[in-house]
Amino acid sequence: MPSIPDTLLNSALVIATSIMSAGFASPVASSAATSSAGHSMVPQQVATHAMASTVSVYVYDKHGLPGGHGSGFFAAPEVLVTNYHVIENGTAGFIRFAGVDRRYRIQAVLAVDTSNDLALLYVPGTRAPSLVLGRDNAVRVGDRVYAVGAPLDLPLSVTPGYISNLSAQGMLQMTAPISPGNSGGPLLDEYGRVIGIVRAFYPGGQNLNLAIKVGHLEELLARIAR
């Protein structure tokens, strides 16, 4: 895969250092502390909960032309999660919340995991709530899940489904419908916890959709919290 442009990497290192020196709390630790809620949500509650933290992501190449579009969500204050493939061709970009015209500039890339198609972006001034992370070992086949994102650059959508396989190419397989543009959005369980990051679907299949396991995200978040 192409690498992140040097200009973005350099700015990310500076910003990451300033965040750490300001006493940035570990997103993994804070998520673990709040993930013991215990009551399942009705679908409308999951939707309301997720929409406040999920955004559309847009990037542009060095010529100012569109370089990618996807979805993302906040897992820590001003730290946005998305797929690496959403941003890999971009040198600049912004995010937008559902129903809000304002654009928030992506100021830097904090960390990437190209093997697991994950990226953490620094988007200051957003003040969005952070979604709580679940645990890989708690997911079971048959669990009800919700995929959240902006399919085909339409407004944010929430689609329900079920976990159908725990190890499809090392990822979660689920039946929640997704389309291009959903990449990078959260996959939530019935408690509103992130158990995966939407990644891809099989065009020739019926609801054969894949999400990256949340454990890979925890590892990436731990890298910027050290």
Low-confidence stretches: 1-37
Radius of gyration, rounded? 16 Å
Please outline the major beta sheet: 7 strands, antiparallel
The percent range for helix content is 10-25%
Give the overall shape.
Answer: globular
Biggest sheet: strand arrangement: 5-4-1-2-3-7-6
Give the ordered list of helices and strands. Answer: HHHEEEHEEEEEEEEEEH
Class derived from helix and strand content: alpha+beta
- How far apart lie the N and C ends? 27 Å
Number of strands: 13
Average predicted local confidence, pLDDT? 85
Q: Percent of residues in beta strands?
A: 35-45%
Helix tally? 5
Written description of the protein model:
The longest helix is centred in the N-terminal third of the chain and has 16 residues, at 6-21. Strand 4 and strand 5 form a beta hairpin. This protein has helices at residues 6-21, 27-34, 43-51, 84-87, 214-225; strands at residues 54-60, 66-76, 79-82, 92-97, 104-105, 108-113, 118-122, 144-149, 157-168, 171-174, 186-189, 194-201, 209-213. The protein is an alpha+beta fold. The chain is globular, with a radius of gyration of 16 Å. It contains five helices and 13 strands. It starts with 5 loop residues before the first helix and ends with a helix. The strands form two sheets. The chain has a seven-stranded antiparallel β-sheet with strand order 5-4-1-2-3-7-6. The protein has a six-stranded antiparallel β-barrel with strand order 8-9-10-13-12-11.
List keywords for this structure.
single chain, 226 residues, alpha+beta, 7-stranded antiparallel sheet, 6-stranded antiparallel beta barrel, 5 helices, disordered N terminus
